[in-house]
Write a structure and sequence with these properties.
The chain is an alpha+beta fold. It has a single domain, classed as HIT-like (HIT family, subunit A, 2-Layer Sandwich). It contains two helices and five strands, in the order αβββαββ. A five-stranded antiparallel β-sheet has the order 1-2-3-5-4, with helices on one face. The longest helix is centred in the middle third of the chain and has 17 residues. Bound molecules: adenosine monophosphate and zinc ion. The site of zinc ion (ZN) has 6 residues, from helix 1. Pfam families: HIT. InterPro entries: Histidine_triad_HIT (IPR001310), HIT-like (IPR011146), HIT-like_sf (IPR036265). It comes from Hallerella succinigenes. GO terms for molecular function: catalytic activity. This is Histidine triad (HIT) family protein.
Length: 116
């Protein structure tokens, strides 16, 4: 999609710090990290949000989850663990309308949303 910033990042039209790329996925550092490791994993196919995916996208999104956990391990999070988040639409705070999985880790996420 021509006016999507993540499509532009995938095409190299906007700079990013690339962590991983293959035929289907692109992963890069979040510009405004919320944890010592904060990586975004996106499919190269433009899908607006998790709640806009079609059933035909299910195998792609399954592979995205597999890649995301691999990328987390590549970044040293295999032992300590990580949080994998999809913000979906307004109430969840989605700000970029190209589906993305946040990988957050590198510290204990004591924010009342999980780890205690
Ligand atoms: P969300 O709020 O779930 O839609 O997350 C969008 C994320 O994209 C935010 O955490 C932003 O910091 C991040 N972001 C926005 N623009 C860029 C960019 N140009 N490069 C890297 N991360 C970005
Ligand atoms: Zn896009």
């Amino acid at each position: 999609m021509s006016d999507c910033i993540f499509c532009k990042i995938i095409k190299g039209e906007i700079p990013s710090t690339k962590i991983y790329e293959d035929d289907e996925f692109f992963a890069f550092k979040d510009l405004n990290p919320q944890a010592p490791i904060h990586t975004l994993v996106v499919p190269k196919k433009h899908i607006t949000s998790l709640m806009d995916m079609e059933e035909a996208d299910a195998p792609l999104m399954g592979r995205l989850l597999y890649r995301a956990q691999e990328i987390a391990k590549l970044q040293g999070l295999g032992e300590g663990g990580a949080r994998f988040v999809f913000n979906c639409k307004g109430d969840a705070g989605q700000t970029v309308w190209h589906i993305h999985c946040h990988i957050l880790g590198g510290k204990r996420l004591d924010d009342g949303f999980g780890a205690k």
